[in-house]
Amino acid sequence: MDLFRSSHAKTNHLQPQINDYVVIDLETTGLYAKDNHIIEIAGIKITSGQPTKIFSSLINYRGKLDQKIVSLTGIESDDLASAPDRRYVLERFQEFVGEDIL
């Protein structure tokens, strides 16, 4: 057990501390990038280990959402009708992230 603790402590000591990053969450119309679309993107900016900013936006999708997706996400097709288009939202999200790690 002491050997494990000693080895573990050395490993942690060598790993860099990452204190600034963005946590991302996506909601999509399904699981396959080729056939499905992002309908919501959210992020939390962590600075010095603390949450500092939040980004959240629905993304316009003109199709009808499958009832499984509606049940899973709580997002209705009507919610997306007046949302900004994907390019606009992703550009704003890129600005939000800046140089931080995802």
Describe the structure.
The chain has 102 residues and is an alpha+beta fold. The chain has four helices and three strands; from the N terminus they run H-E-E-E-H-H-H. A three-stranded antiparallel β-sheet has the order 1-2-3, with helices on one face. It is elongated. The two termini are 35 Å apart. The model has no long low-confidence stretch (mean pLDDT 88).
Radius of gyration: 19 Å
Question: How much of the polypeptide forms β-strand, as a percent range?
Answer: 25-35%
Largest sheet: 3 strands, antiparallel
Low-confidence stretches: none
Name the shape in a single word: elongated
What's the number of extended β-strand segments?
Answer: 3
> How confident overall, as mean pLDDT?
88
Q: Strands of the biggest beta sheet: in what spatial order?
A: 1-2-3
Terminal CA distance reads: 35 Å
**Helical stretch count?**
4
The ordered H/E elements are HEEEHHH
Structure classification: alpha+beta
The share of residues in helices is 25-40%
Give the topology.
Blueprint: H1 2-14, E1 21-28, E2 38-47, E3 50-58, H2 67-73, H3 77-81, H4 86-97
Antiparallel strand pairs: 1-2, 2-3
Index terms:
4 helices; alpha+beta; 36% helix; three-stranded antiparallel β-sheet; 3 strands; 102 residues
Write a concise synopsis of the structure shown.
This protein has about 100 residues and is of the alpha+beta class. The chain has helices at about 1-15, 65-75, 75-80, 85-95; strands at about 20-30, 40-45, 50-60.
